[in-house]
């Protein structure tokens, strides 16, 4: 089995190879995914690392609060993004205020 780790507070100049090299001593790194801004393509300062279970636990213990490229990392087990049922949220009606027509 593998675990996905959240890695926060990454330097905006970090590369996938930098992150992989930092996590590799703790176990097999299956994948690294650094999140970028859709419009600018720049790193957003966080990403995800997928590792084997034992390596993931060791990496969390060893790297949470440690520095990479001058930034203190935040490393923990990634949380599943909640699936939102039904779309649209709680908006009702539309337009610019209701009622009150002209006289």
From TrEMBL:
The keyword Repeat does not apply. Pfam families: RRM_1. Gene3D superfamilies: 3.30.70.330. Residues 73-103 are annotated as: Disordered. Keywords: RNA-binding. InterPro entries: Nucleotide-bd_a/b_plait_sf (IPR012677), RBD_domain_sf (IPR035979), RRM2_NsCP33-like (IPR048289), RRM_dom (IPR000504), SLIRP/GR-RBP-like (IPR052462). Residues 3-80 form the RRM domain. Residues 84-103 have a biased composition (Gly residues). GO terms for molecular function: RNA binding. Coiled coil: none annotated. The keyword RNA-binding applies. It comes from the Bacteria. This is RNP-1 like RNA-binding protein. It comes from Solidesulfovibrio fructosivorans JJ].
């Amino acid at each position: 089995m593998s675990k996905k780790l959240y890695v926060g507070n990454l330097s905006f100049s970090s590369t996938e190879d930098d992150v992989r090299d930092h996590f590799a001593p703790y176990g097999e790194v299956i994948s690294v995914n650094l999140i970028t801004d859709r419009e600018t393509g720049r790193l957003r300062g966080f990403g995800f690392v997928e590792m084997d279970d034992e390596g993931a636990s060791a990496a969390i213990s060893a790297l949470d609060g440690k520095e990479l490229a001058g930034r203190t990392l935040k490393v923990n087990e990634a949380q599943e993004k909640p699936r939102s049922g039904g779309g649209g949220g709680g908006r009702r009606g539309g337009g610019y205020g209701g009622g009150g027509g002209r006289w």
